[in-house]
Amino acid sequence: MEPKLEKKYGFFTAVAMVIGIVVGSGVFFKAEKILTATGGNLKQGIIAWLIGGIIMISCAYTFAVMATKYQYVNGLVDYAEATVGKKYAYYIGWFMSIIYYPAITSVLAWASARYTCVLLGFPIAGGECMTISCLYLVASFAINALSPILAGKFQVSTTIIKLIPLFLMAIVGTAIGIHSGMTKYNFTHYVSQSSSNGLFTAVVAASFAYEGWIIATSINAELKNAKKNLPLALITGTFIIMTVYILYYIGIAGTVENKVMMANGETGAKLAFQTVFSDLGGTLLFVFVVISCLGTLNGLMMGCTRGIYSIAARGQGPSPKILSHIDSTTNMPVNSAIMGVLLCAVWLFYFYGANLTDTWFGFFSFDSSELPIVTVYALYIPIFIMFMKKEKELNFFNRIIMPCISLASCVFMVIAACFAHGTAVIAFLIVFAVVMAAGAFIYHKPAKVKDPAAS
């Protein structure tokens, strides 16, 4: 008999996965971009964090309601199938597997490597950084493919570790900044005038820092009492994330001037920790920052290794019998995992050529850390619309009010991305169209490889 995914994760692992995937490099990696986009205007930056948080929480709530009704192999794909239909679910799964998961995971591997280079004193734009990026990808793949239970425990432990520097900076940085006057100075002095699209650019950047919570639904079939635990994990996790981000952002404003953070990026974050906690203490806490990045990478890889499996288990996509195979020893879709890490390598190569060099890809250079995320929000729209249309037994708040807020949030994200990225959006849409056309070419009516509901 073909092995099936077992119920091996509990509520705290799910919460840790939501927080662990989202909280990590993004809050450090994009803080400098948000400051730059707003011209060092901390108030506008906080508004961007709030808007991004509200978008995340509203969408998470709507999906949490769906999680009480639909429970199969892969949360988002299931929701698309239950609301819009099997073909749309296939295209969602195809996009997530070929573009979203590997593109975001590869960026996180690079960001983790960048912070490692800052810690070790290596150049952050050289071959050392890319080598470490590749090593992190392989290591993250190995722990998820060979020992998924260990990967889950690693997720819980890194989540606890990564909250330490954030909370300490939020509390101590704010206290010191209020006492020294640095917080007031940074709130009242702007470095430059923000562009007309500054807020849009800041919100799209914040979307990267907030993204990842939806990937927690990929362990739906492996979560104990998923219909209860997954909604609780989504809501609990997203509220904690928004609160921590805003408090950290305020805390770091009490350490160094905004222009220093804007000019130094990752090095500026290390300087902020050393300013508050001394050279030794700041370096130790920066080690925690690196660990937090690796925890985020691990969480993303948990979704990435199951990406192709989510459509193969429905008898769709390339070689569904092979890619839906569950290893009897590790209880992991090992062939899907291998496919996932290979796609990560492809997207890491693209990210390097498009964003870290003199544009190897010319017109087709775009930010693969942000545009795939905005695309997911666009793909949510039909799901929310059909959910409101079909689920008539739900109360008015859950069926109409929250899905409408989620819809408005998604539309806002699409508009913001167009303002923030300009013609790069066209380049991305061309790549997106080619990938989806390839998916359409191999699409076929699903054969019964296995019944997802039985998983």
TrEMBL record:
Location(s), subcellular: Membrane
Keywords in alphabetical order: Membrane, Transmembrane, Transmembrane helix
Highest taxon above the source species: Bacteria
Segments traversing the membrane: 9-31, 46-67, 88-110, 130-151, 163-179, 199-219, 231-251, 271-297, 332-351, 371-388, 400-419, 425-443
Annotated membrane topology: Multi-pass membrane protein
Main location as per UniProt: membrane
InterPro entries from the UniProt entry: AA/rel_permease1, AminoAcid_Transporter
GO cellular component, one term: membrane
Gene Ontology molecular function: L-amino acid transmembrane transporter activity
PANTHER family attached to this UniProt entry: AMINO ACID TRANSPORTER, SOBREMESA, ISOFORM B
Name under which the protein is recorded: Amino acid/polyamine/organocation transporter (APC superfamily)
